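Q: Convert this sequence to structure tokens.
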Amino acid sequence: MSLQKARNTTPEVALRREIRQLGYGYRVEFPLPGMPRRRCDIGFRKARVAVFVDGCFWHSCPVHATVPVRNREWWIEKLATNVARDRDTDSRLTAAGWMSIRVWAHEDMAAAAQRIAEAVRARR
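A:
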């Protein structure tokens, strides 16, 4: 697991490039309010929008999710914990007045950037 990139993954960089081309500024690895150990991949502070780029394996994508054969029970629990943490983060952000947007790594980043831009524009 230590060899997996935690930030600046290919999908994150592609999404940031698309958002920048639309003329929006953002913060990278933005700390979330009231959650000291959690960060969003892309943050729009004034609009209060937090964007997360979720990998299909680590966040149990409904289309591409897999579970390793070795140590299967441990992985099932680990991946379920990741999903539960994502849901908790989303609910806490909503309670704090933020909007949480989740983008799967396999999505079209240009379309995702448009969706994010519309949300930011609507919340400004």
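The first strand starts at residue 27 and ends at 32.
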